[in-house]
Amino acid sequence: MIVLGIETSCDDTGAAIVDSGKLRSNVVYDQQIHQTYGGVVPEIAARMHEQKIIPVVTGALQQAGCALGDLDGIAVTYGPGLAGALVVGLNFAKGLAQSLQAPFIGINHMEGHLWANFLERPLTPDQFPFICLLVSGGHTHLWLVAGPGEYTLLGRTLDDAAGEAFDKGARLLGLGYPGGPAIQHAAVDGDALKFAFPRPKAESEGLDYSFSGLKTALFYQIKRMDANFKDDLADLAASYQQAIIDSLMSRLVKAVEVTGIDRVCIAGGVSANNLLRQSLDNWSHEAAVSISYPAIEYCTDNAAMIALAGYVRLAAGQSAALGLDIYPSLRMDENAAI
Ligand SMILES: Nc1ncnc2c1ncn2[C@@H]1O[C@H](COP(=O)(O)OP(=O)(O)OP(=O)(O)O)[C@@H](O)[C@H]1O
Ligand SMILES: [Mg+2]
Ligand 1 pocket, 304 CB below 6 A? Predict the structure, then answer.
């Protein structure tokens, strides 16, 4: 079964081909124009998707050596994301499905991030259950994954997402956008113990996260240091990054203790973070927990993960009606619109 995946939920225009669960091509146009504004401008994102979607889809087909007529199904992100951006991908996919008379399916972007873990290893029943820490620009969620479509929320952020904490912290530090890679880079030779930033919720009972206090602590630290903060940029970045990763790890470790499930994966843009990956590797050696994370190129937004998620659902006999609408606030355990 050959599935075309399309992703336009934010500022990356993506298309990919998955053939019987194996990735054949993956093309992403990264809309770098948003760096000029220090964040994603929704209207510009939608207009760039309009311009790029045809060349990106054509590129994915060519890279895979496929023609439109070879497609057995089309999968597209229908939420969560920016409304104007989602509409472009969804309408394009519907038009294509209608003209090819091919099955069509709406995919939850966050479910896509999750399946990015199975782009390079087989998705077999013995992989379940596992715990997934979904850490991206808009989400920080801990999920218990019992099988495809069987998700139980264990914990979530009560305010900012981890990626948002990186992005807002980078802005305070005068670093670029996106903030995660910028802070990671600035922190390379920094002393992570120099500044004692709070570890929100580290001691509390539940599995929820909170990052807004950490961002405020950075704001006041910079204010106290005035213009001199640039002299300690590496130490500030390293200490701030360490606080985010310590918070992420503390709930993940607790989730494994609470559930007794010792298989863990991470997904989403923040799963590209080196310190998070190192911390997971160290933990897996100490605690005999099995860890996996996607290749770096599949952590941030891409259509490979959407094509695979689409393949899983289409192969299970699911499809959507052409009346499917976008769902900008879609949760991972909701599929009401399909
Ligand atoms: N190496 C890294 N370290 C930390 N954070 C990173 C790294 N690389 C990317 N990020 C962060 O990942 C986020 C982007 O990830 P992603 O593309 O998954 O988010 P999104 O699609 O905007 O949000 P969502 O998936 O929640 O809708 C940004 O906040 C970015 O700063
Ligand atoms: Mg994303």
Answer: no
